[in-house]
Design a protein that fits this description.
15 helices, 2 domains, alpha/beta, Enolase-like, domain 1, homodimer, eight-stranded parallel beta sheet, TIM Barrel
């Protein structure tokens, strides 16, 4: 009898020790005191804290914090339109499979809640961070990566108002020792072909011949192949690595035609994808050579890693899309950390103070100008609670007189 | 001098008379007292009221009212992540082109706000309703429709737990004089092939040979063509009109392969599309024969009509997806009212009382069992304010101590 008793105790302890359940999911809306009407995505962020037993994981959702908070707490509309919370709270989180299962539940139970994919993104990141801390393993190791390769950050710039301005900006990038740079938006695509040729040539001249140059058209030609065509020759001549978002993301026919005309210059796109299927379609039907994934939008690290694997099978290069904090940067590097020849990464070159203050650690460039994925447990970033407290935005959502959300206390536990 | 003076007055009056500006956009979250965990989308709704001068238009967003309200009022994150409000309030609304312009603004200014497409959907409907009232014209006439054709409603049913149950349900549909019926979900696809064969045959037998039969697989086979294949023969044998959502909506390869195997049975899908591009991709790459569009999700009537036009060009049949009120039903019929051979329409057969109480008018079947698009101005439906007041949900959203949204008074003005 005694031996059976102790067997039971041992089994109970084993189960108890292995099973970690999600006790709390908290959202913190952080913002600069003033948000400007400019294309700088680092002006606010939605931080996610997940507590499971003694462990804490942190993640970050891209864009519109209030709306993602609402999708976590909203009352159910029907069986396929539930609040994200219903699929997450109380779930066991012992393995990589648990993270995928939780994500699949969110996608099924919140199928008709459009914002849910963005909300899931931050939750998924926090779950990977948490599981990494439980297992004392960096996220990329949990993802099966044997060797995490350094990434080459590119400096992302707006085109200058004139080609002369662009030339000076490009020179500054070179002086700052970036070995890759992207120019985009501004006047590009809006004026005549000659203006755009001048702009691209100025960027190349300013960077010199050895720095990789990417051009971001910011969907300026909607779905009009003809308008894009006139720019192809200068892109080839200036050895541009990729032309990003020449068209709106759904214009697959225009993308595919341009991808053939522009070779060897590749097309790039995908930052808006909110599930892996959309990224696959860009690869399969739009002919992109680079697929750009924001782990804070696509459903988190799990979905981003699915895209990285698929891209590799199809000979397409995976690139992160990251414009905010170094927590988001660490999360966004994990999915392609193990792919040696997918080297270029987006790097937030001049984010707002909020994004820099978020973490104690930063992923700075080494002497060769490269970025290294942290090899600390989880995402390898700790939150600087005191530094970010001044950015915390007080939110209160009440439905039928009941408080569904109130900004929680910002602590490390 | 007098004549110049009067000219100026006349021009000013003319301009003043022609220009209507959006003065107010109000959201009303309406819900049944209790929302059940069932696949019934009529348990809540988000009503949109737009006031422009002396005119009022009404629209309806599909699913998760709180989240769509939040996306209307949320603080800006950056220049491409603005609250929907910023692109709508104060805009002139004199023509169909104005409605499209407002929608395009929302899509550009709220590009990174995922929920914005659902929010826009109700706003777009309300704008069409309002413009129709200004111009004393039904929406389908504004859309260029010369003749609005009646539509054949199908009765949408869940499969019974057993084939015998399904047979009885099908008999009841026939007795209720529907000439088209859809069976879906329930046990279908989860068990063995033999069970599914029994179910489909029971549905056909119960309906008799002359009633159109559609089958909804509810994405049960994810992206697994093999599992779907075994059901193809019985679908052909029972002359099924369409097989709906055999796979998740992104699984284009599986869709396309099955669409070839299943001929002459067509595949159907598209209810989750939140922009017209996604519907085009289902037509171009997934091989659907029927594209099912929810005007309350895809961006409203404007986007839905774009899909209807594209589908017609490609020989694909357009069908509405409608599960809520007769206001939403009127809106969902307008985009394909003029396409005579796109006859079948989804019809909310047994919605909750909220959906029926919303409007004074209902789109009931005529003696031939057909539904007629209203030929009254706008959407042709008036809101029964007194009837719906008990369903009104009180919502209060505060950010930094400021009220961003508070449920407004529910009135007709």
């Amino acid at each position: 009898m005694v031996s059976i008793y102790w067997c039971r105790v041992a089994v109970a302890m084993l189960i108890g020790g292995l099973t970690v359940k999600i006790d709390a999911v908290d959202f913190f809306y952080l913002s600069m005191p003033e948000v400007l009407d400019i294309g700088d995505g680092s002006q606010d962020l939605l931080l996610v804290r997940i507590v499971a037993g003694e462990y804490i994981g942190w993640g970050e959702c891209e864009a519109s914090p209030l709306v993602s908070i609402a999708s976590y707490v909203t009352p159910m509309s029907h069986s396929a339109c539930k609040p994200v919370r219903d699929s997450v709270l109380g779930q066991p989180i012992d393995s990589v499979e648990d993270i995928r299962r939780i994500g699949d539940q969110v996608k099924a139970n919140s199928l008709d809640l459009l914002q849910a994919d963005h909300t899931l993104s931050g939750i998924d990141m926090a779950l990977w961070d948490l599981l990494g801390k439980v297992q004392q393993s960096p996220v990329h190791t949990l993802l099966g990566v044997k060797t995490a390769y350094p990434k080459r950050p590119y400096a992302s710039q707006l085109f200058g108002d004139t080609a002369e301005d662009t030339f000076r900006l490009a020179q500054a990038v070179r002086q700052d020792q970036y070995t890759a740079a992207k120019f985009g938006w501004g006047p590009f695509g809006w004026g005549g072909v000659a203006d755009d040729i001048d702009q691209v040539m100025a960027a190349r001249e300013g960077l010199g011949p050895d720095t990789a140059l990417m051009i971001d058209a910011g969907t300026v030609w909607a779905d009009d192949l003809t308008r894009a065509q006139g720019r192809v020759d200068v892109l080839k001549q200036c050895e541009v690595t990729w032309l990003e978002e020449p068209f709106v993301s759904g214009a697959f026919d225009a993308y595919r035609s341009l991808s053939e005309l522009a070779r060897p210059v590749a097309l790039a796109g995908g930052e808006g994808c909110h599930n892996p299927w959309q990224a696959r379609h860009l690869i399969d039907y739009a002919g992109v050579g680079f697929v750009q994934i924001d782990a804070g939008r696509i459903g988190g690290i799990t979905s981003a890693a699915d895209v990285a694997r698929y891209a590799q099978q199809r000979g397409v290069t995976y690139v992160n899309h990251t414009y905010t904090s170094h927590l988001a940067l660490s999360a966004s590097l994990q999915p392609f950390a193990g792919i040696a020849n997918n080297e270029i990464c987006e790097y937030p070159v001049a984010p707002k103070s909020l994004a820099l203050d978020l973490t104690h650690e930063r992923l700075d460039r080494d002497e060769d100008g490269m970025i290294h994925v942290p090899d600390r447990p989880g995402l390898g970033m700790s939150i600087d609670i005191d530094a970010i407290r001044p950015y915390l935005v007080d939110v209160d959502i009440r439905v039928r007189g009941q408080t569904l959300y109130r900004t929680p206390e910002l602590t490390n536990s």
